[in-house]
Amino acid sequence: MELKNKCILLTGATGGIGHELAFKLNSQGAQLILVGRNENRLKLVSDKLTSAQIIKADIATEQGLQILISALAGVQLDGIINAAGLNQFSTLNKTDKHKIAQMLDTNLLAPMYITQALLPTLKSRPSAFILNVGSTFGSIGFAGYSAYCATKFGLRGFTESLRRELSGTSVKVLYIAPRATKTDMNSEKVTQMNLDLGVQTDSPIIVAQQIIEAIRGNKEETYIGWPEKMFVRLNALVPSLVDKSLAKQLPIIEAYTQHQVELNTLNNGELS
């Protein structure tokens, strides 16, 4: 799809990937509706763009979803990019239930609710798209990310099912899975752990460009990075081999999850 003059809703517009994506979309001539929780940060982004409207809303809440849907009444949308996301690096037994709920609400339920509400508008357009930003961890379960992986596995399943539901309509359903990306979602400890594990990390600019190419080329599924692409396929075909490979990394991961728990405890003390 050509993006010039297309009206596109972008959630998570102030995050690392969303921020860069807003500028990439703007350079393609898209008319943007930016969604985020922080109005000041939204304005900082929109002020640098040619054409952008902002909506301050926390899509992880019922109230925020209602604000968003109400603000879009009568808007002829050509596309939705669900890029908002939350992450927490910790073992399941040390993950707060509230954090699990936040991740589910933001990463999985919000894209589903937003898509459901806006689908009639998209179907009325000559051509339209929905793009969900997933993760390599939506195909490979990784120790220390069980809750996050659950949300991204769910998002991938939702995307695949919706694509089949909308087969034959004017709406294309796309999924992109970045690997580790340099954003504020990752703490310094996680960044260091990735270095120790030999995990390759991409810049948000690279991911944003891949998203643009996916939309323009109507690419149903895009996985970013090598050997991550290979491991996604291998995990689907012979998961026991991936089990053995990842088991070798477990001591390093466990050491860093302990560091992360200590850091979270300190931060909670400072904030109280």
Provide an overview of this structure.
It is a single chain. The chain has 272 residues and is an alpha/beta fold. It has a single domain (7-271), classed as Rossmann fold. The chain contains ten helices and seven strands. The chain has helices spanning 16-27, 39-46, 62-71, 97-123, 146-165, 188-197, 204-217, 228-237, 239-247, 250-271; strands spanning 7-11, 31-36, 52-56, 79-82, 128-133, 171-177, 221-223. Strands 3-2-1-4-5-6-7 form a seven-stranded parallel β-sheet, with helices on both faces. Helix 1 (16-27) links the parallel strand 1 and strand 2. Helix 1 (16-27) packs across helix 7, helix 4 (97-123) packs parallel to helix 5 and helix 8 (228-237) crosses helix 9 (239-247). The longest helix has 27 residues, at 97-123. The model is unreliable at 261-272 (pLDDT under 50).
Overview features:
alpha/beta, globular, seven-stranded parallel β-sheet, 272 residues, disordered C terminus, Rossmann fold, 13% strand
Give the radius of gyration. Answer: 19 Å
Quickly name the level 1 CATH class.
Alpha Beta
Q: What is the strand content? A: 5-15%
Number of DSSP E strands: 7
Overall CATH architecture: 3-Layer(aba) Sandwich
The geometry reads as globular
What is the number of helical segments per DSSP (H or I, 4+ residues)?
Answer: 10
Mean pLDDT: 90
Biggest sheet record: 7 strands, parallel
Q: Show unreliable segments.
A: 261-272
SSE order: EHEHEHEHEHEHHEHHH
**Percent in helix:** 40-55%
> Which class of secondary structure composition applies to the elements?
alpha/beta
